[in-house]
Structures are given as C-alpha cells and as structure tokens.
Write a structure and sequence with these properties.
alpha+beta, two-stranded antiparallel ribbon, 11 helices, 42% helix
Length: 224
C-alpha cells in the first residue's frame, strides 16, 4: 500500500480515539528519496495500553519499549509511543524510557538527522534538526554530541556505515573521523549484532562492504 494512503487510514483510526500519528525514520527518509518504502514506522502519543484498547490485530511483545506491531490491510506497521530515554549502561538499551506527547521531545533520542523526520498523512514534514537539509546534501550526521551518541549504542557506528553505503551518502567529517578513531567501541556489543549489520551490508553489495570494512579496520576476529 502507498505510504500516504496507509498513513491516512491509520491516522483516522488513531484520531477517532483522540490520538495523533506520524510516519518517522527510514519510512519518511526513503519516501522523500523516492525509494520503495518497505518498513512502515509510525509514532503516536497513545501509550501501548491505550493502543490495546482499540487496535484489533497487534503484537505487543515489545510493549515495554512502547512498541506495538500491527497490521492494517495486511500491511505490517510498527507504531511506537513517543518517548525520551535515559543513559545506556549496557551500551545498547536505555536504562529507562519515559513516554511523552510531543515529537519535538522524541526526536532527541534518534540517531541521525535523516532518520528524525516526521510526516503526517498530508505529507507535511516536521524537522527539528535540519534533517531535510542533510538529506538533500546526502550527509549522515549524528543528532547531538557524536561521542555521547556512539557510546550510548556503538551499533550506531555500523548503522552509519551501512546507511552511507546503501544510500550513497557521505558521513559528516566529524563522524567519519570519530568512527575511524573509536572502532574498538564495537567490542562492547554482542558479536551477533555486529554480524547482523554486516550481513545486511553484504546482502546489498559484498564488494562495497569489504571496502568499508577495510577502511574502518573492522575485523570480526578482533571484535570477538
């Protein structure tokens, strides 16, 4: 189903129960780039409990993170309650999340500016960190302090590299330099998570993946 058509339909359901809804992240990014949208990620001010009261076809296995997986017209969508996050002591998951009701608070927890664009069913964009400008410049830039965001979740290092490859974007100079100098942060991660990211890259383009792994000196034998 076409994104705006789906977004309008789901928004109507949420509005009828007093809540709002926006598309966000890679969903909006790929839509604006004219790419096929394969993953439908939406956000709302409704809590998981509130969504359970009116959604019929849902999976709440990630409810504690504010995430509900639903189906509308046989299309899988992921709807997340707007939230703020605290520190990441395990270098992967926030210690605590707090639900909020404003997208201007939610965007601060996101990784890159191009993944922090919100869009309503009319196609209106909400951009709090110049994400659209970076999208037009084909630049991957971290939201906030690079060191803090990478140490919160070092998997963002691999995500940045993967996005640069599949989108043909350039990493912002500060981010590129940081990754080259701090690749050892990957040792904090479960090696299976690293393999998953690299597999995604390999499935897209093995040659380009090998070039990038060599550039950033990423070696699974050294990470284990």
């Amino acid at each position: 189903m076409e994104l705006l058509e789906l977004l309008k339909k789901v928004t109507k359901t949420f509005n009828s129960h007093g809540f709002f809804l926006y598309a966000v992240g890679g969903t909006v990014r790929d839509f604006l780039l004219g790419k096929e949208v394969k993953d439908f990620d939406f956000v709302t001010d409704a809590t998981p409990e509130e969504m359970e009261s009116f959604l019929e076809n849902y999976n709440n296995v990630f409810k504690r993170f504010g995430v509900m997986i639903c189906k509308f017209d046989n299309t899988r969508i992921e709807i997340t309650t707007l939230r703020q996050e605290t520190s990441y002591k395990d270098s992967r998951h926030p210690d605590k999340i707090t639900f909020v009701n404003n997208i201007s608070e939610d965007y601060l927890r996101r990784d890159f500016t191009i993944n922090a664009l919100y869009m309503d069913y009319k196609g209106k964009l909400y951009d709090f960190c110049n994400g659209l400008e970076d999208l037009n410049k084909k630049t991957i830039r971290v939201i906030g302090d690079v060191d803090k965001r990478m140490k919160e979740d070092p998997l963002r290092i691999l995500r940045a590299i993967r996005f640069s490859m599949i989108l043909d974007f350039e990493l912002e100079d500060n981010l590129d330099t940081y990754i080259q100098n701090n690749i050892d942060l990957l040792k904090k991660l479960n090696v299976e998570k690293i393999k998953q990211e690299i597999t995604k890259m390999m499935n897209y383009d093995q040659d380009k993946t090998n070039v990038l792994l060599n550039k950033y000196k990423i070696n699974l034998f050294n990470i284990n």
